[in-house]
Amino acid sequence: MSSTTTSQRYLSTRGGSYGFSFEETVLKGLAADQGLFLPEDIPSLPSDWQDAWSQLTFSELAFKIFSLYIAPSEIEPTALRDIIDRSYSSFRVPSVTPTVTLDRAKKVHLLELYHGETFAFKDIALQFLGYKRP
To answer: Is 122 a catalytic site residue?
Structure first.
């Protein structure tokens, strides 16, 4: 198994499987007990994340977040950036998931998740998996 930190180990929502790496969970899909995989521990965000991450592009933000859950020993940072860039390069808008303001006074916004290849929200997650190869 790869050497990963606690925040990069995954367990089943049904409790029958645990201790898996990111790559193992991607290859398995569902746990043996038919549960979904989730991280054993949720990593802490940097204390300045709201300011530091507020102006990042979608791909830059995705890299920051994925890096919290995927050990460099499983996917090297340069390879991870490349996977992310390729995954979202086919989206029809540069921001990938733009927001539309519905009511500025009430701060109501709508996140558009349909700019991927199939016009469906699933493109956000599945495009990445399509480029992640063991």
So the answer is: yes
